[in-house]
Specification:
9 helices; Arc Repressor Mutant, subunit A; AcrR family transcriptional regulator; 2 domains; mainly alpha; DNA-binding transcription factor activity; DNA-binding; HTH-type_TetR-like_transc_reg; HTH_TetR; Tetracycline Repressor, domain 2
Length: 212
């Protein structure tokens, strides 16, 4: 998924851009909080100048956003699973939520930095919200299609329902990334149950659902 956080068209062969992102990743992985990292730190670790940093990114929050593009790719994959009409609702909803939690397991430290960056940069907040709005439109179309096919009962406005369910996902994933003490499998099962009851009016899945 291309998120537009880079000033230039992405070029996988561009070693300087890759070095900057690797440097930022290394600082975050070492436990440095975003608030304590400067552009000079990133440039120095990457072996480039500050001006080189600005050639690729307008500021540090947008560099963080570029770093977490794999999470956006995971979110896109999760949405594709959810929209697969050939799969039973319980299976695709649980798979969608599981992919989101798996993504945090792999990239949690970067996601936490992205939360800091979002709070600090209004442009990033706008891009973040636009991305979620796009997912909400896709989910709303799925809900509408399921209702028309007789697979789901009539209910709240599909777009509003989709937005609220995605908001719920966001809050749950953020709490998980920040160290929620609730067992992961219970969180996934609870979210799946809420989605199923909200969209389909029932949760036919046994409580023993395996979510790791």
């Amino acid at each position: 998924m291309s998120t537009g956080f880079d000033r230039r068209t992405p070029n996988r062969g561009d070693e300087r851009r890759a070095a900057l992102l690797a440097a930022l990743d290394g600082l975050l992985l070492a436990g440095e909080g975003l608030a304590s990292i400067t552009i000079a730190d990133v440039a120095r670790r990457a072996g480039v100048t500050r001006s080189a940093f600005y050639f690729y990114f307008p500021n540090l929050p947008m560099a963080v956003a570029a770093l977490v593009e794999p999470l956006y790719d995971d979110a896109s994959s999760a949405t594709e699973l959810l929209l697969d009409a050939q799969t039973p609702p319980s299976q695709r909803i649980t798979s969608m939520i599981t992919v989101l939690f798996d993504s945090i397991d792999r990239h949690g430290y970067a996601f936490r930095a992205a939360l800091e960056a979002r709070a600090a940069d209004p442009d990033l907040r706008t891009v973040w919200e636009e991305g979620r709005d796009d997912y909400a439109r896709q989910v709303a179309r799925m809900i509408t299609a399921e209702r028309r096919a007789g697979n789901a009962p009539a209910g709240a406005d599909a777009r509003a329902l989709a937005s609220m369910l995605l908001e719920l996902n966001d809050r749950a994933v953020e709490r998980y990334a920040l160290g929620s003490t609730r067992p992961r499998k219970h969180q996934v099962a609870a979210l799946a149950s809420i989605w199923l009851r909200s969209v389909y009016g029932t949760d036919p899945t046994p409580s023993s659902r395996s979510t790791r």
